[in-house]
Amino acid sequence: QKEVEQNSGPLSVPEGAIASLNCTYSDRGSQSFFWYRQYSGKSPELIMFIYSNGDKEDGRFTAQLNKASQYVSLLIRDSQPSDSATYLCALKGTPLVFGKGTRLSVIA
Amino acid sequence: GAGVSQTPSNKVTEKGKYVELRCDPISGHTALYWYRQSLGQGPEFLIYFQGTGAADDSGLPNDRFFAVRPEGSVSTLKIQRTERGDSAVYLCASSLTVGRGLLGPDTQYFGPGTRLTVL
Predict the structure, then answer these.
(1) Which of residues 34-73 of B touch A (CB under 8 A)?
(2) SS3 B84
(3) pLDDT value at residue B46
(4) In angstroms, rounded to a whole number, what is the distance separating the alpha carbons of residues B112 and B114?
């Protein structure tokens, strides 16, 4: 069974710092991953998609995928209080396989 | 355009009662998914439809749970004889198609969820 693991946190970072969120997965054949952001009481919102080894940048967000080590990470540069949310890593497929999510708190 | 909508947004019921949760997908999306999210957990898959048929219902926890999508658009998740352990947020998502391609038509978009509380 395919599994995705995340540290539930909370992860606290000061405003302006880099937040680093990590995710590991069990199936070596897994190809592609999503990062979703979920504000408290809201539904998941897609923020990043990665399928190649290496880095993918989009604004303040960088997703990193290392298939040899079976981990995916999300870096948020210049963290803002509005980034405070739970970040869900998901293995792309039908259906999606989610991790538990990491709660991020950005302190002003 | 309109996103995925779900009704009701909140449902409080008593143990043993029957409930129906409704999902209205994005217009034109052929695939529809139901997930359940408990507090502090990620969404867990329940069932998905491709058109009118249930393509995979392996996530339904037991036979008290059933879902339909009779006309290939709106779906209803039905829970019989509710138990306190059924309390969770039930999320619906839809995608244009189902596939294994890169980001594109099989991207899933989520609705706001229905918070079910069983007393």
Answers:
(1) 35, 40-45, 48, 55-56, 59
(2) helix
(3) 97
(4) 7
Comparing CA positions, the residue from B83, B85, B81, B109 lying closest to residue B96 is B109
- Over range B4-23, report the average pLDDT: 97
Contact A76/B at CB under 8 A = no
**Highest mean pLDDT pick, A36-50, B7-21, B44-58:** B7-21
Tokens, residue A77:
């540069």
Nearest residue to A64 via CA among A92, A28, A24 = A24
Residues 6 or more apart in contact with residue B54 via CB below 8 angstroms: B47, B48, B67, B69
The answer to whether A49 contacts B91, with C-beta atoms less than 8 Å apart, is no
In angstroms, the CA B66 to CA B77 distance is 6
